[in-house]
């Protein structure tokens, strides 16, 4: 199970969004089984392509007026994600993804 953090830059504002995948590991991410493009596409329900990349970067994607990037991907245990769910940081459904 992985927890990912997406950095969102919107003009002068910057914030983070968190989500998870129960069927991938950080090693899978490192090996390209799950990519930044796929994470962002599923999170925003938008098909990101190479055309959406910010010029001269490989990991910043334009989404309207916002620039998105996957800031981190880490392994997480189910009991840890339950704590994040308890405090309203992520919405967790057992065996799902968010």
Description of the structure:
The chain is of the alpha+beta class. It has one domain. Helices cover 23% and strands 32% of the residues. The protein contains 3 helices and 4 strands; from the N terminus they run ββααββα. The protein has helices at residues 26-30, 36-44, 78-86; strands at residues 2-10, 13-21, 61-63, 66-75. It has a 4-stranded antiparallel beta sheet with strand order 2-1-4-3, covered by helices on one side. The chain is globular, with a radius of gyration of 14 Å. It starts with a strand and ends in a 12-residue tail after the last helix. The model has no long low-confidence stretch (mean pLDDT 93).
SSE blueprint:
Layout: E1 2-10, E2 13-21, H1 26-30, H2 36-44, E3 61-63, E4 66-75, H3 78-86
Antiparallel strand pairs: 1-2, 1-4, 3-4
Short summary of the structure?
This protein has 98 residues and is of the alpha+beta class. The chain has helices at 26-30, 36-44, 78-86; strands at residues 2-10, 13-21, 61-63, 66-75. The chain has one domain (2-86).
Strand line-up of the largest beta sheet: 2-1-4-3
Fraction in beta strands: 25-35%
Q: Can you count the helices?
A: 3
Net shape = globular
Biggest sheet details:
4 strands, antiparallel
Class of secondary structure makeup:
alpha+beta
Helix/strand order? EEHHEEH
Q: Ranges with pLDDT <50 over ≥5 residues?
A: none
How many discrete structural domains? 1
The value of Rg in angstroms is 14 Å
DSSP strand count: 4
Distance between the termini: 12 Å
Helix content: 10-25%
What average pLDDT do the residues reach? 93
């Amino acid at each position: 199970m992985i927890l990912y953090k997406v950095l969102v830059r919107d003009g002068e504002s910057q914030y983070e969004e968190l989500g998870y995948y129960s069927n991938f590991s950080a090693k899978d991410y490192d090996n390209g089984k799950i990519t930044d493009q796929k994470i962002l596409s599923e999170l925003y329900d938008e098909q990101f392509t190479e055309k959406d990349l910010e010029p001269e970067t490989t990991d910043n994607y334009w989404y309207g007026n916002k620039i998105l990037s996957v800031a981190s991907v880490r392994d997480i245990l189910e009991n840890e994600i339950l704590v994040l769910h308890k405090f309203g940081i992520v919405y967790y459904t057992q065996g799902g993804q968010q």
